[in-house]
Design a protein that fits this description.
CATH class: Alpha Beta
CATH topology: TIM Barrel
Shape: globular
Number of strands: 16
Number of domains: 1
CATH architecture: Alpha-Beta Barrel
Structural class: alpha/beta
Helix content: 25-40%
Distance between the termini: 22 Å
Number of helices: 9
Low-confidence stretches: none
CATH superfamily: Aldolase class I
């Protein structure tokens, strides 16, 4: 019985990674993620030059469940990639560098730096919902998705992962990303939302809009994975609202070969152990020799 998977040419001990934006922005954060047991580490999104991001509050826990955040892609710029990769290499954990830019040129610039210093793959953030000029403005347009992915895939040899968010044309955008050279799709990012303080009579986040994450978006994320896999049988990493092994398993049977965990880390340091323990019992229940046997199973039932 094996939990090993290969996704975007990366051989992983099991299918559980962290989601970008969670701890992967400092050497200490990389060490923490490795100790938590993730099979690969995804960095916080990195841009060519440093960004300060938005002023606090930037992350709020919602009374309805989940989090809403508008960090503003705060990061120290591409100069930090070398140190993050070096730490991951010493720990013998694959590292995927999440990157963003305002143009094809900026995406390619950061991707080339990631490859130069030894990153195992790059994840293109085409879906940040709260930073003007980045992310969702690109990912909602399938032609722009193709252009960005093509610009990176043409100048790098490491696997390219395209992270897409919720939009009316996400299935079409997925198709264009694959055509342009993406080896895998990461589905989905946080969902654009707003949280208002009814006593202060104004939005809580300084940026007004933020990205909703956690259990509230899980059924949406599973639906997107299901729809994209049904159309293209692509290699998919599912992300959005995983809080236990069952929510991870939903992604797998919908068509994901691997998953990413973010919000759950806020309250559960054992999330990786808990998910893996549950998945092993799940495989035993079906008499499956490998978790890959259940990828996309919902389409065959």
């Amino acid at each position: 019985m094996s939990l090993e998977v290969t996704v975007a040419s990366l051989r992983l001990k099991h299918p559980v990674m962290n989601a970008s934006g969670v701890l992967g922005n400092t050497p200490g954060g990389v060490v923490k993620l490795a100790k938590l047991g993730f099979s690969a580490i995804v960095t916080k999104t990195i841009t060519p030059e440093p960004r300060e991001g938005f002023k606090p509050p930037t992350i709020v826990r919602l009374p309805t469940g989940g989090l809403i955040n508008a960090v503003g892609l705060a990061n120290p710029g591409k100069r930090t990639i070398k140190e993050l990769v070096s730490v991951a290499k010493k720990l013998n954990v694959p590292i995927i560098v999440s990157i963003a830019g305002r143009s094809e040129k900026e995406f390619a610039e950061v991707a080339c730096e990631a490859q130069r210093v030894g990153a195992d793959a790059v994840e293109l953030n085409l879906s940040c919902p709260h930073t003007e000029g980045y992310g969702l403005e690109l990912g909602a347009d399938p032609l722009k998705v193709r252009s960005v992915v093509e610009s990176v895939a043409s100048v790098t040899s490491v696997p390219v992962l395209a992270k897409l968010g919720l939009s009316d044309r996400v299935v079409e955008a997925a198709s264009k990303a694959l055509e342009a050279g993406a080896e895998a799709l990461v589905l989905i990012n946080t969902v654009k939302g707003i949280y208002i303080d009814v006593y202060a009579l104004r939005p809580v986040l300084t940026a007004v809009y933020g990205g909703l994450s956690g259990p509230p978006i899980h059924p949406i994320a599973v639906r997107v994975v299901y729809d994209v896999y049904r159309e293209y049988q692509a290699e998919i990493i599912g992300v959005g609202g995983i809080l236990d092994w069952k929510t991870a398993a939903e992604f797998i049977v919908a068509g994901a070969k691997a998953v990413q965990v973010g919000t759950a880390l806020v309250s559960n340091d054992r999330i990786v152990e808990d998910v893996l323990e549950g998945l092993r019992k799940w495989l035993q229940y079906f008499g499956a020799g490998s978790i890959t046997e259940l990828v996309g199973a919902a389409h065959k039932a």
